[in-house]
Amino acid sequence: MIKGKDIIVVGIQAWDIEIGSNCKNIAAEFAKNNRVLYVNPPMTRSVMRGQKDKATIQKRIRIKNGEENDLVEIDKNLWNLYPKSIVESINSVPIHSLFKMLNKRNAKIFANDIKNAISRMDFKNFILFNDSSMFLGLHLKEFLQPNVYAYYMRDYLVKVPYWQKHGERIEPQVVKKADIVLTNSEFFEDFCRAYNNHSYMVGQGCDVSHFSDEDDSIIIPKEFKEIPSPIIGYVGSLTSLRLDIKLLEFIAEERKSWSIVLVGPEDNDFKNSNLHNMSNVYFLGRKDASQLPNYVKGFDIATNPQLINNLTIGNYPRKIDEYLAMGKPIIATQTKAMQMFKENVYLGETKDDYVVLIEKALAENSDEHIANRIAFAKSHTWQNNVKAIYESIIKATKDSIEWD
Prior knowledge:
alpha/beta; 16 strands; 17% strand; eight-stranded mixed β-sheet
């Protein structure tokens, strides 16, 4: 346990982001025993000009102009900093030497805003926790001089087009500079350990309370009354970048007595796929997040039919925790990141594996299996995740820092 310390959190997501955020959950957990400053990414000049009509950007412009406070108390021990300064958009710069120069300039501007807040808050001997901000993060250790610099890798961002151009070169440098690297999958731990021996997999937190159905209060939607069992389901964005359309078509073709139920918005590849011509495939469309537990409850088998590619190979599948929290039998694609689930999830490598494993899961489901899945999901709390982060930081710095 680390307590009574000052922690600065930087990353690629602002506190007022409209979707859920690992980084925000971790910061809130840090703040239970430490003072925490959560720093929003700085506003770029191009975003300020191009998105000036958005409410979040208008707020940042007012802060830049001194019309609102840049430092906001969110909760006990937790503050949010809106950097006042503007940085330049440089990702499209083609010349590496020029990008390096401009990136360091951006980092210095950003660091100066953070230093100003550090002074006002009287932060001392702080831990700097960087959630994947690889470009600005390259120079923050030298500019801010933290007691501990921790880099957190939870997505394969360098394979995403925006980050790939410069990220494949820069992220390994950030990993090398860090005092400790924390990851949420074994795949990323192996990747980082090639550059930094103090790289540790700390798992993932997940709030699955809204998927809890132990009191049998979640109601299955009426749509399921017209769908024959067994129901093999998936909830989430239906995108061909991550999901295997051919696998779903194969399952539907091989077992016409099974109903394949897909809940979520479709990309064009899904909209144009042969799945729409198959009588045992049901597209139920986009649903509000609050309704998803109801749809999962209607499944006999929950699936995560991922493709294996750069976007998915190291990805921690939070969806699996949600399925497990409802006690559902799960069939998922075998990846290194999925190994931690192997005792509670059926893992397949081929199309035939999926069919065989679905049949196996249908045949051997039991109250004991259901209870084990629910218990496993409950173990993936943010409290346990941050406990693992603390233990890893102490382990990596035990020779240089004496922790209370």
